[in-house]
Amino acid sequence: MYKLIHAMLALLICAALATGTAAVSAQSSQPPAESASSQQSVNADAKPMTLGELRRKYSETFKFSGPEVKQIALTFDDVPDPRFTPKVLDVLKQHGVKATFFVVGHRAKKHPELLQRIHREGHVIGNHSYFHPLFKKKSVDEFKNEIKRTEKLIEKLIGYKPRFIRPPYGEINEEQLKWAKKNGYKIVNWNVDSLDWKALDKNKVKHNVLSTVGPGSIVLQHAGGGSGSDLTGTIEALPDIIRILRNRGYRFVTIPELLHEPKSL
Known about the structure:
Layout: H1 2-28, H2 33-45, H3 51-57, E1 62-63, E2 71-79, H4 85-95, E3 100-103, H5 105-110, H6 112-120, E4 124-127, H7 140-158, E5 164-165, H8 174-182, E6 186-188, E7 192-193, H9 202-210, E8 218-222, H10 232-247, E9 251-253, H11 255-259
Parallel strand pairs: 1-6, 2-3, 2-8, 2-9, 3-4, 5-6, 7-8
Helix pairs in contact: 4-10, 9-10
């Protein structure tokens, strides 16, 4: 009898030990609380940075304005465009103003004479990509290819590689900014938006510029656009904008002058 009881007790002890081992094994398969927290931190770090965050983190590379002095940089995107670029150039020449033009590569290839005229009349050329994509949704390699392809064409036509890049729609991601910084480029957005791409009339374009401009402003306008674009408002508003701001004591400069950086690499 004693032997039978002893055997039963032994079996019960073994079963208990097996259950405990399984519980420990199951528990050890779960990640520790701090590991889950670390994973959450990694996921949080992977969240794309906003333009404001990028601007603060890469303030030496990513520019929205210049020093707060009585200078203003007029900039014109999406050039060259035979419908609008010559008219903008005529106004600037008439008023003795030098500006910065951000060039789309495939348009420069179609209208090389217009790009050369911009350069010949003393304006600065910047890089606005080759096909005008939304960069923040592109890889670093795609970004690089867009910039380098346009750069190569610009250098062939006017003799220098632009230092200044304006991303289409003003959008860019951190990895692209890192590449630009490493390779000596400056990314230039704006702090005054004319909204002229909306085909606004002269008075609305004037209001959008004059109501927000200040010392060191970078003003976004366009001298080119898509097939349905109408930039008449910009062309008609430009003489008044120049005259009024000069009367306020401002001097018009190019982006390299405003930021005290060379125009080329």
